[in-house]
């Protein structure tokens, strides 16, 4: 309209808002896959990835809701893994669910999560009377169980006021009630993701919630195994960590993503609080076996 024009930008890419990490009731989020997508539309997002822990069971519902709400849906999974006794997460985008090796590892991790949740509950039963039935009431049938469901059961029982307090007081990594679960070695996880045609992005690699942060050497080894990206912009990262991770990403030519890690009302993380550049999503779609659902 006016004589003064801003810099020319690609109109298709300008203002596209992309959030590549969310959870639904298929794992430990509090909203169904369709609700997560509806909330994404409400939050003004153009693209959302559903990345439940160790499962793809929410994909179809999310994709259908995406078409209904005009939100593009990226099908993903946040895969549990380990390195040097530490629990780490790798996001896999657009992989083939028919890949037997990856499907088997995910199944094994899901089963281990259930056995581990039972052990945590047995420990909590002694001091707080918590029962497995009370935890099951908090889990959608077929959902992947995690500590947040145990937290919800503790809230329902009146032991703690909310999920965060449950984690701070009873469920954190150093707690006497904490129990580990089986998960594949992180290099094996990355190789399986790649073999299944997925795009492998290290989730919150600079989060220190588990006591320590993964070393540069481990990230280098992950890259050698096929890692393609780092989730740099995440609320659990300090500005120093973001800077460190951007440097590593530049050194290896890795994709850099940003995401909310939304869990519905279970965490403060808000949809779109961190976002990913459209060019990065284009690369992910080029590299992945499946298409983004539009
Ligand atoms: P798990 O998968 O059972 O090891 O539990 C880890 C999950 O708990 C992650 O998805 C986190 O997002 C969630 N979590 C960790 N800390 C908190 C917290 N303080 N409040 C709510 N959720 C949390
Ligand atoms: Zn979670
Ligand atoms: Fe995670
Ligand atoms: Fe997550």
Protein model, in words:
With 294 residues, this protein is of the alpha/beta class. It contains 10 helices and 7 strands. Helices cover 40% and strands 14% of the residues. Strand 6, helix 9 and strand 7 form a beta-alpha-beta unit. Helix 5 packs across helix 6. The radius of gyration is 19 Å and the shape is globular. The chain starts with 17 loop residues before the first strand and ends in a 7-residue tail after the last helix. The model has no long low-confidence stretch (mean pLDDT 95). The structure holds adenosine monophosphate, zinc ion and fe (iii) ion (2 copies).
Distance between the termini: 32 Å
Bound molecules: adenosine monophosphate, zinc ion, fe (iii) ion
Average per-residue pLDDT, rounded, comes to 95
Structural shape: globular
User: Structural class, judged by helices and strands?
Assistant: alpha/beta
Beta-strand proportion: 5-15%
CA radius of gyration is 19 Å
| Side-by-side strand order of the widest sheet | 1-2-3-4-5-6-7
Biggest pleated sheet: 7 strands, mixed
Extract low-pLDDT stretches: none
Number of strands: 7
Q: Number of helix segments?
A: 10
H/E order of the elements? Answer: EHEHEEHHHHHEHEHEH
| Helical fraction | 25-40%
Indicate the topology.
Layout lengths: L17 E2 L13 H10 L4 E7 L5 H11 L2 E12 L2 E8 L6 H29 L3 H5 L10 H10 L6 H9 L14 H10 L3 E4 L13 H9 L4 E5 L5 H14 L2 E4 L19 H10 L7
Parallel strand pairs: 1-2, 2-3, 5-6, 6-7
Antiparallel strand pairs: 3-4, 4-5
Helix pairs in contact: 1-2, 5-6
The structure holds adenosine monophosphate (AMP), zinc ion and fe (iii) ion (FE) (2 copies).
